[in-house]
Write a structure and sequence with these properties.
Elements (H helix, E strand, L loop, with lengths): L11 H16 L11 H24 L25 E7 L6 E6 L5 E10 L5 E9 L10 E7 L7 E3 L6 E7 L10 E6 L11 H29 L6 E2 L3 H7 L6 E9 L4 E7 L6 E6 L15 E3 L11 E6 L8 E3 L5 E9 L8 E6 L7
Parallel strand pairs: 5-6, 14-15
Antiparallel strand pairs: 1-7, 2-5, 2-8, 3-4, 3-7, 9-10, 10-16, 11-14, 11-17, 12-13, 12-16
Helix pairs in contact: 1-3, 2-3
Protein name: DUF1214 domain-containing protein
Amino acid sequence: MIQTAPSPVPDQGQAWIDFCDALKAAGRIALRPDAPATELERAEAWRCLSRYTRLGLQMMLEFGDPDFPQFYAASDDTIKVFLPNPDNRYANATIAGDREYRISGRRGQAPYLSFGTKANRYAVDGTMASTGELEASQMQFEADGRFEIVASRHPQPGNWLPMADDSSMLIVRETFFDRSRETPGSFHIERIGAPPAPPPLDGAALAAGLQRAAGFVQGTFRLVADWTAMVAAHPNRLAAAPYAEAAMRVGGDPKICYYHGYWQLNRGEALVIETEVPDCAYWNFQLANWWLESLDALHRPVAINHHAARRNEDGSVTLVIAAENPGVANYIDTDGHDRGGMLLRWVDARHHPQPRCRVVSLDSLRPH
């Protein structure tokens, strides 16, 4: 009888060394010539890397088994990947395209709720294409808000969330108009036909998880740096093209029209944004730092939405971005920064008006 040699056991020590080396390589992105080198922005770069590392390990190792998915927060108050909406609560889960899943729970008070499946390739080529979308207006709920969704490649009766062969992530978005008054929902996910229990951790699974986590950190950090460098070529303006299509490639919601931009102000300057407001379900505007992390919405007015904004007499809205409030409505605080990313979202809008941006003297806005 011919005996085959056992498969080699991965060198877990080498896997850890490779993981650390990959993080070191990712750090070099923070030192690229077009990246900012101020004390604040360099510190934010290293903090951003630490946050991506934490998220990468959660995503690829702790919650990386598509047979036993669990929801985790890929963006929250301390992990902020690619301009997450401060009005949103996000829940993510790892899935696989050749499996089927049941999502159950109870809807909260968020006016906008959506579920999406994605082909998460941030670790490979910086993309996250949509493979299926389902929003609350398309769903059936019980009287008490309970619901059940089946996510699969093949159509199902009732609430069905489409998947594709390459689906690898499921994301839940709850959008709140006023988070101080609206309660979130509760969500649970399970694989249909899952084995009874996960196997014990082995060296191969650990090595693969570390490799994927490192790839996520490198790929995502490079993506945000490349994106910021692209929009920085045209400062102090908001534009949909050519960014809208790119936003879809990196995981955007197809119901949202995104107007991206890069703001940059000298001392004593303000950026004034004026726009018509379309007939839409929701809109918001926010600032971010150079690494596209949303600014500190817990302690400063760094974002605004349709619920909080004061309209002009003709229904339009004027936003003022500056280091200090000159005494105007719809003031957006720069949170100690003088440049970074910015984003305007029109959600389910009938048309998409073009915002007008201009830099003015801060003193010119003060009441006289």
